[in-house]
Amino acid sequence: MSETLLIISFEELCHIEQLSKDMIIEVIDYGIAEPVSGDNTRNWVFDTNSVRWVKKAITLYSQLELDWIAVAMIVELLKQKEKLTEENENLQRRLMRF
């Protein structure tokens, strides 16, 4: 079974989400999200996971009026929580077999 990867360009992301290019570049600069390919903004391509983190970061930045360093730390903690939750669910499924 093949996995389908949905991608969006930098320009499309700016247009669809109505975000400034500078704001998305800030998100990238702080390591909150990363393009899956491309070496500059003209070639950047994002997958759905990256788009999700961009949107969360922008929401934290604008609605809670946090600075980018705080947003980066929060997003990192959210990513860790998500990973731990997934690992916990996998372990729970394995335990249910016994």
TrEMBL record:
Pfam families: MerR_2
Superkingdom to which the source organism belongs: Bacteria
Protein name: Chaperone modulator CbpM
Native source organism of the sequence: Alteromonas stellipolaris
